[in-house]
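User: Hi! I have a protein structure encoded as tokens and I'd like to know what sequence might fold into it. I'm fairly new to this, so please keep things simple.
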């Protein structure tokens, strides 16, 4: 009897063991609820984060002329933005534990739409309706396209779910598709880094491709860390596994290097270009990493995949139109242009206006009264000696240099 029952017991236990490490298809209705929860958390996090950044920016603008460079730390507006920013990042971080990676990443277009709407609402300029429509029509069209693309992403997004246990993450980490993907990504990253560092190829596409490749690994590790925390909260402890801390270290390291390259890009290029090109490249790289590591599109039919790709393209176009019409920041100049001062005689040198420096400045171009300064600090003068045209044969030097001795 025992020998006859053992094969049946093994056959009954085999599906349970394989189901624990396999990606669950979207036949379960609860998986749709998880997708909705993750999408709502991501949208909420991006909205709150956008509001927080605008609050902090408003605080910096109000205190731009303050002598204390850290005066914004004393304002309630800046701290309100800081706490809202932390809340938004927590919302986005939590969303990775519920929904697939390929669904959460493109939803960052919500922050671009929210920033555009907030910027239009809080315009301080006086405008006419015709000028406003002509000036911001691309932004309105871009917002509409981004909203349509977001709806398609949420509706037709991948619906594969699995528990983020240490066993599942380890199995994905050593799978041959991901190892091949990592090999290709490392080679491409090293080539881009070589051209950027050694060949001084400071093109925006190269810098943002470096950011996108690092960002793809960041979101993969973020989903692993967030999913393992959620499984631990549900009762199955995963925080004692070494893979959790490996993913945590990789998440922090890639995020730091990603921020470094973004800072370098912001010093060379306009923020609007960084937002649009960075969103397209980062989203594409993250979706590819999610499809390779977590097998997000396993079991999806062709219609869902095509509609998801269409939603991504529409969101890309919307973000591009929004950022295309964004104003470029004008750098602050600590002097007044002389040709803008009424009643002031313009001084030009070959068509270039001479600008006065700040007071107490000894740099070139200072137009100040030097009578009160010591004579030793005054520049050498070149008095012109007029030539006498009476005798053509005698030639006198056109000028002479008055040198200052140490006694003077």
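Assistant: Happy to help. Inverse folding works backwards from shape to sequence: for each of the 408 positions I chose a residue that suits the local structure. Here it is:
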């Amino acid at each position: 009897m025992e020998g006859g029952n053992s094969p049946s017991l093994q056959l009954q236990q085999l599906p349970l063991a394989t189901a624990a490490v396999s990606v669950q298809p979207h036949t379960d209705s609860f998986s749709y609820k998880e997708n909705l929860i993750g999408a709502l958390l991501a949208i909420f996090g991006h909205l709150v984060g956008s509001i927080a950044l605008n609050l902090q920016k408003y605080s910096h603008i109000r205190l731009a002329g303050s002598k204390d460079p850290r005066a914004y730390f004393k304002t309630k507006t800046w701290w309100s933005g800081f706490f809202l920013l932390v809340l938004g990042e927590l919302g986005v971080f939590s969303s990775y534990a519920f929904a697939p990676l390929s669904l959460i990443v493109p939803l960052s277009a919500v922050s671009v739409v929210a920033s555009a709407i907030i910027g239009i609402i809080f315009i301080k300029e006086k405008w006419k309706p015709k000028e406003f429509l002509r000036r911001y029509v691309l932004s309105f069209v871009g917002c509409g396209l981004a909203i349509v693309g977001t709806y398609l992403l949420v509706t037709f997004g991948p619906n594969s779910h699995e528990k983020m246990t240490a066993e599942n993450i380890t199995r994905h980490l050593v799978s041959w598709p991901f190892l091949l993907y990592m090999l290709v990504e490392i080679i491409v990253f090293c080539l881009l880094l070589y051209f950027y560092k050694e060949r001084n190829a400071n093109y925006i596409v190269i810098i943002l491709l470096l950011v996108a490749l690092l960002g793809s690994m960041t979101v993969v590790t973020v989903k692993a860390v967030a999913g393992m925390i959620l499984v631990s909260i549900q009762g199955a402890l995963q925080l004692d596994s070494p893979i959790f801390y490996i993913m945590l270290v990789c998440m922090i390291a890639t995020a730091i290097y990603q921020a470094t390259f973004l800072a370098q890009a912001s010093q060379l290029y306009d923020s609007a270009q960084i937002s649009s090109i960075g969103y397209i490249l980062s989203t594409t790289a993250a979706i590819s990493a999610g499809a390779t590591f977590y097998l997000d599109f396993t079991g999806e039919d062709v219609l869902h995949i095509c509609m998801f790709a269409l939603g991504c393209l529409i969101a890309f176009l919307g973000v591009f139109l929004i950022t295309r019409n964004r104003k470029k920041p004008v750098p602050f100049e600590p002097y007044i242009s002389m040709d803008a001062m009424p009643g002031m005689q313009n001084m030009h040198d070959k068509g270039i206006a001479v600008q006065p420096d700040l007071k107490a400045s000894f740099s070139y171009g200072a137009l100040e009264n030097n009578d009160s300064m010591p004579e030793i600090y005054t520049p050498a003068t070149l008095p012109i000696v007029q030539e006498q045209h009476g005798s053509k044969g005698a030639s006198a030097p056109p000028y002479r240099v008055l040198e200052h001795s140490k006694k003077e």
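A useful reference point when you look it over: The first strand starts at residue 348 and ends at 349. Feel free to ask if any position seems puzzling.
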